[in-house]
UniProtKB/TrEMBL annotation:
<keyword id="KW-0560">Oxidoreductase</keyword>
<feature type="compositionally biased region" description="Low complexity">
    <location>
        <begin position="50"/>
        <end position="60"/>
    </location>
</feature>
<feature type="domain" description="Rieske">
    <location>
        <begin position="84"/>
        <end position="194"/>
    </location>
</feature>
<keyword id="KW-0479">Metal-binding</keyword>
<dbReference type="InterPro" id="IPR017941">
    <property type="entry name" value="Rieske_2Fe-2S"/>
</dbReference>
<dbReference type="GO" id="GO:0005737">
    <property type="term" value="C:cytoplasm"/>
</dbReference>
<dbReference type="Pfam" id="PF00355">
    <property type="entry name" value="Rieske"/>
</dbReference>
<keyword id="KW-0408">Iron</keyword>
<keyword id="KW-0812">Transmembrane</keyword>
<dbReference type="InterPro" id="IPR036922">
    <property type="entry name" value="Rieske_2Fe-2S_sf"/>
</dbReference>
<dbReference type="GO" id="GO:0051537">
    <property type="term" value="F:2 iron, 2 sulfur cluster binding"/>
</dbReference>
<dbReference type="GO" id="GO:0016020">
    <property type="term" value="C:membrane"/>
</dbReference>
<keyword id="KW-0472">Membrane</keyword>
<keyword id="KW-1133">Transmembrane helix</keyword>
<dbReference type="InterPro" id="IPR050584">
    <property type="entry name" value="Cholesterol_7-desaturase"/>
</dbReference>
<keyword id="KW-0411">Iron-sulfur</keyword>
<dbReference type="GO" id="GO:0016491">
    <property type="term" value="F:oxidoreductase activity"/>
</dbReference>
Amino acid sequence: MEALFAPSVHISASSTSHNKTPFTKSRVSFSHLKLPVLPMLLTLGKTTSKSHSFTTKTSSAAVSAEEEPDTAKKEEKFEWYAQWYPVMPVCDLDKRVPHAKKVMGLDLVVWWDRNESEWKVFDDTCPHRLAPLSEGRIDQWGRLQCSYHGWCFNGSGNCKLIPQAPPDGPPVHTSMKACVAAYPSTVQHDIVWFWPNTDPKHKDIITRKQPPFIPELDDPSFTKYMGNRDLPYGYDVLIENLLDPAHLPYAHYGLVTAPEQEVKSDREGGGPMDLSVKKLDSQGFFENQDLFGDTKFIAPCISYASSSPGDAPEKVSIYY
């Protein structure tokens, strides 16, 4: 698994490829933000939901039946390939060359189209002999060129040049079979995102659905650090870990500051926690933890945590 890391100052395929098994190797990223020296309160918007709110404690035997979220919500289907996913931060990209990435089990090539002044995300496969386009180059006209036979593609994935084709022959480069699969892509919060479906009906998906917006990431009063890490485990393990506050006093002993427990059971200070879940459905959840502040999970891959331990300035951590 790959992760975008950020400890904290300024911030900053084919049309059937979406049927591949997801998460064979996941990509994750995160950004940490701190408020400046002057104290400032970070207010998180509370999202209402049809799902029933409930409060629980880890020391309780169980949550009562009326406190359970609606069964319909728990069984709501989540469309994994109808979501925006982060690919990599812009600060790690060189506009002069194409970049290979694997996200959602899909082999991608990310490249800068200077003709449209946009980052593009393509299937990392030339339609000619299946050579990886990420090993190609950006030609003098700003097109993505395959390094095997020199085929060139524009920002829409259309083939614009087949060097071996005679100029007075049929325009074979205009054939649909000569096109490379292009994924919808955009840049938000200084991160390149892509929509993992190349069906033409999703071409303008950005006009109907945008990547999740995190206000703090565009707030100039915050400072931001962004980074990237490889992690030797899968998406599910990482997300579960990020949303599990009970391990912090033990796995991160001495690194995480938390209020003292009323009853201290051991050196580390672990104990029961009050968790108040305000929203819970297939799109994620929002909860308040008595010791660690607010936590939000935005499906499929964003973990957001805000806390103000002791007199320390408020800090927001965001993991993709």
